[in-house]
Amino acid sequence: MLPAGHRLRASSDFAAALRGPRGARAGSTLIVVHANQTDARAGQPPRVGFVVSKAVGTAVVRNRTKRRLRALMAARLWDIPAGTDVVVRANPVAAQADSSALGAELDRLLGRVLGRLGGARA
Asked: Would you say the pTM of this structure is higher than 0.70?
């Protein structure tokens, strides 16, 4: 579970992370990672949100996929620079992938996105 201060909740925050002018994106067949940093959030803890559409599967499958992604991101939260908003979007194939494959893909894409933002990953 992600701590409350590290969760993206408002749709405007999701929109800013997905379509922000200074944002970055990297994707694969499993997931797509979007990230954005703004001056207004400088020094605040990083926040993470998840997008798992109906294309991924039934409600049970979507919730299971979201729980797995949330647990994987909770372990990587301290690698994300302060003031960064990250949105992880699951593609339909993510529902069948095991956690190790999701974790490896998340590490690769998160590193790429944070590198584009200029955030050094620990």
From this structure: yes
